[in-house]
Amino acid sequence: MKLKPEIEAFNEIKTVLDNMQLGDSLLDVRLAVEELFVNIVSYSKCTFIDFTAEFKDGVMTIELSDNGLPFDPTVKPPHEYDDELTLGGLGIDLACALMSKVVYKRRKGFNHLMLQKY
Hints:
This protein has 118 residues and is α+β, with helices and mostly antiparallel strands. The protein has helices spanning 10-18, 26-43, 91-98; strands at residues 2-3, 49-56, 59-66, 101-107, 110-117. Strands 1-2-3-5-4 form a five-stranded antiparallel beta sheet, with helices on one face. Helix 1 (10-18) runs antiparallel to helix 2 (26-43) and helix 2 (26-43) runs antiparallel to helix 3. The longest helix is centred in the first third of the chain and has 18 residues, at 26-43.
């Protein structure tokens, strides 16, 4: 599904995920995908985002691809957690923690992000 890089486009992803019978994993998957989608929209300067989702043999696989600036969320340094934390900036950490597997690849000018929940 090709989406415009607009926050409101997440509603289309939400509809797909809500209809996939994910059970107890639904909220984790939806939150992780929302955090990463919003990050792509907010910072990548892309002109589109491709979204695919498949639930097969108990594994949820989601792919987000965009033509924006290169950014690998899997190598982002973890935050130091302390009493002085400011709001924001933890969405990528949260998304990666909620999913079983997160893989990033940059190919032919595109960011490809694959997420799995077992």
